[in-house]
Design brief:
The complex is a heterodimer of chains A (437) and B (342). Chain A is an alpha/beta fold and 437 residues long. Chain A contains 14 helices and 17 strands. In chain A, 35% of the residues lie in helices and 16% in strands. With 342 residues, chain B is mainly β. The chains are: A alpha/beta (437), B mainly beta (342). Chains A and B meet through α13 of A and loops of B.
């Protein structure tokens, strides 16, 4: 697999020399069929990829697994038969109202763009989660990476000593769909997955091995790996090697996952819930240079008692996400960190007999905050009852193109799997320029 | 009065309700049913008229779901998720008084048997007692924790007066019940029903359930508590409907009754004035009406309701039962007394 960026964003914030561009493009052409991560890393060094990586851009994805209701969050319909009991409240952006369960986020709407016109046409948990991770439908014969792995690949430095992609998902429901996957990008960009504990398992050196022994074993492994690669080079081997080479750095990153390292006041700011602690860890990770962190918050699948469930989960989301925005802002990180709320779908406008809402993908919402985003915008609209998209319909591919664009990643970038070019966004996808800074 | 035989319960008629009907009250000595709806309005429907039709009370309605309704001192008093209590003239159906009563969503409204007091409960976790005639706040009762043990907002769902009006009980999401002296506001007892609250720490990491209904026995010594049992999959109301009966003075649980045949929440409970049975109604996607023997805890009779039942009203002579709920109103008859049928 190799990479070619068809275009660069052209922003004055990340200039690229024409010579650098042409040189890199030529190298891509030469190496397009070389399925070797060594070639890939050479490609990264000079201009295109390197320039982006210098900007230290980061992503935190709050994965609202199970499907949060757009009507109780970003797209309220008060007074309509489908609207439910909650009011809409004013935000600090005139003309943009959100659900009353998010009062703290309402006061931070100037940092956030809403998209209220997702029509993703898939209301099945498993395949919808796949769609909203890949930005496209699954295709036979291609093992696509998810959004997180692509961002990690594009934003991570080759010499990074921290993980590229950390995924937290502690609930068991929906975990198999929320874990994340690096597909053809290989093990180097696979998620460090935390499910049972916020401290990565098996990250510590065994007490029975001294540090000197550990280093010696790594040296021996490296020697054998290089010899093996020379004789039987392949993408898989290169990918595994790349991952192994970073082991000692990853081992040293254990403290990043420990919220006890934070002052009590900071922990209090995020609150006592597990989601709060996970988001504090996410901030610690992005601050240390981890390019992509996913925090899975399950489980929003409120077929019964939708309003009670959202009263509970929205209180958590409102408090924790507000704390995270403030913290990133205070540290000067928000400008470089894109904070996303997204799930596999939204929930039906129709309220069922259990006062629940069911799966719904025809007109739902997500939010984008921080890096590259024009805060205070609300793009698209659903109809009066939230049944269909009335304006600005977009699909998963368009959302991904928007996310990539906000991060300065050319959404038309292509990877090569063998001789086959694979664009990182689905064919025909376009970014939503209205929400981009 | 002898209790009618539950086995004689028969569904007589169904009528459409305006959207979701959450709460009901009856104009005394009449066939006029009042109900509060998800369309923010209060309606009246005369169930013995030739063509029963829902007529909205006039004037500015609530701004959210109407979840509590009681009739007292010639008024209907409605409570809503908008935090307001509205007094309505029952005869003219006009708005009389509007009070900003709570900071959070009002869940239920109850009237004392003598019609002098209105009790409102809300998610500010307070119970407030009001003068039914003047709307004056008499006192505020506070005993329920604002947060669950898992740090999420709690809810105060249930309230009931005893039949002599001397006691009041309030029940919350985590299964705590406080019993109050209605005249002084003193807390005189408490019972715990923690099984009503399901916290899922592993699969879905949130909670469901809570105490949804309360009823004192005619002698005020026992307290029935309704809700739902532990739920495996909290995406749905898939747990057994559950009733617990306590002697509230010592907090002793006499009966734990779970029904797997008709799942869901027990939304309302009422003892027959003779103490002959305890009536429970509620549901999940479907609905039920169930009679229990309060002495033994045994099921006497049950019927599937045509909708999830949010509330019911019994006729003065218990010969008729009106249930309201998801988009429907159902009229039931009750025939021969228990004594006669035995």
């Amino acid at each position: 697999m190799s990479r070619m960026s068809a275009r660069f964003c052209g922003s004055a914030d990340h200039p690229v020399s024409r010579r650098g561009f042409l040189g890199t493009a030529a190298a891509v052409g030469a190496g397009a069929f070389a399925a070797d991560m060594t070639v890939l890393n050479l490609l990264k060094d000079p201009a295109l990829a390197g320039e982006l990586k210098k900007q230290q851009k980061r992503v935190i994805l709050l994965w609202l697994a199970g499907g949060a209701s757009q009507l109780e969050t970003w797209d309220p319909k008060p007074g309509r038969p489908t609207g439910g009991p909650f009011r809409a409240i004013k935000t600090n952006v005139p003309g943009v109202d959100i659900g009353e369960l998010l009062p703290k986020l309402a006061q931070r709407m100037h940092t956030t763009a809403l998209i209220r016109s997702l029509n993703t046409r898939n209301a099945d948990h498993g395949s919808a989660a796949e769609l909203m991770h890949m930005g496209r439908r699954k295709e036979g014969g291609v093992d696509f990476p998810d959004l997180c792995a692509i961002c990690a690949r594009e934003l991570a430095r080759a010499d990074s000593q921290v993980p590229d992609y950390v995924s937290m998902y502690t609930a068991t429901e929906g975990r198999r769909w929320g874990k994340g996957f690096s597909g053809f990008l290989g093990a180097r960009h696979a998620p460090m997955f935390l499910s049972e504990s916020m401290i990565p398992e098996n990250i510590r050196r065994l007490e029975s091995i001294s540090d000197v022994d550990h280093q010696a074993r790594e040296d021996l492994r490296g020697l054998l790996a290089r010899r093996f690669s020379r004789e039987r080079g392949s993408q898989a081997v290169a990918s595994q090697n790349s991952a192994y080479q970073r082991v000692r750095g990853l081992m040293a990153s254990e403290r990043l996952f420990d919220v006890a390292q934070e002052p009590a006041t900071m922990r209090a700011q995020y609150g006592p819930t597990q989601f709060g602690e996970q988001c504090l860890v996410a901030r610690r990770l992005v601050e240390a240079g981890v390019p992509f962190v996913k925090v899975g918050r399950a489980w929003w699948d409120s077929h019964g008692q939708n309003f009670e469930t959202h009263r509970e989960l929205c209180a958590d989301l409102d408090h924790v996400m507000s704390a995270l925005i403030d913290d990133l802002q205070d540290r000067g990180l928000l400008e470089h960190t894109l904070l996303i709320t997204l799930g596999e779908f939204g929930r039906t406008p129709k309220i069922n007999a259990s006062l629940g809402r069911d799966h719904f993908a025809s007109a739902w919402s997500c939010s984008l905050t921080g890096c590259g985003i024009r805060g205070g915008t609300a793009f698209g609209a659903s109809d009066a009852d939230g049944q269909t998209v009335a304006d600005g319909e977009i699909g998963a591919g368009d959302l991904f193109a928007t996310i990539f664009s906000a991060l300065g990643i050319d959404p038309h970038t292509e990877y090569y799997v063998g001789a086959r070019p694979i664009p990182i966004t689905d064919f025909g996808s376009q970014p939503v320029k209205d929400v981009l800074a | 009065m002898t209790a009618p035989d539950p086995a004689t319960l028969k569904l007589k008629a169904e009528f459409p309700a305006r959207e979701i009907a959450f709460c009901a009250a009856r104009v005394p000595q009449s066939s006029r049913l009042l109900y509060g709806s998800s369309d923010f309005h209060v309606y009246e429907i005369d169930l013995e008229s030739e063509k029963p039709e829902s007529l909205a009370f006039s004037g500015e309605p609530h701004q959210s779901y109407v979840t509590g309704l009681a009739v007292a001192a010639g008024h209907a008093v409605s409570g809503s998720y908008d935090g307001r209590l509205i007094w309505w003239n029952v005869e003219s159906r006009e708005r009389v008084r509007d009070i900003a009563a709570h900071d959070r969503w009002i869940r239920r409204v109850a009237s004392s048997p003598d019609g002098r007091l209105i009790a409102s409960i809300a998610d500010d976790m307070l119970c407030k007692l009001w003068d039914a005639a003047t709307g004056e706040l008499i006192r505020t009762l506070a005993d329920h924790e604002p947060l669950t043990p898992h740090h999420y907002p709690s809810m105060l769902y249930a309230v009931a007066f005893s039949s002599d009006g001397k006691l009041l009980a309030t029940g919350d999401k985590v299964g705590h019940v406080a019993v109050w002296d209605a005249a002084t506001g003193e807390k005189v007892g408490a019972v715990e029903a923690p099984v009503m609250y399901t916290w899922d720490p592993k699969q879905r990491r949130h909670s469901i359930g809570g105490i949804r209904s309360l009823a004192f026995s005619p002698d005020s010594e026992r307290l029935a508590v309704g809700g739902i049992g532990q739920i495996g999959n909290i995406d749905h109301l898939g747990g057994p409907s559950r009733v617990e009966i306590f002697t509230w003075r010592d907090g002793r649980r006499l009966h734990e009754i779970e029904d797997e045949n008709f799942k869901g929440l027990v939304q309302q409970l009422e003892f027959h004035e003779s103490g002959g049975w305890l009536l429970a109604a509620g549901g999940d996607n479907n609905g039920f009406v169930t009679f229990y023997d309060p002495e033994t805890g045994k099921l006497l009779h049950q019927e599937k309701a045509p909708m999830h039942v949010h509330a019911f009203v019994l006729a003065d002579d218990s010969a008729a039962l009106w249930t309201i709920g998801h988009e429907k109103i159902a009229v039931w008859s009750l025939g021969a007394s228990l004594a006669e049928s035995k």
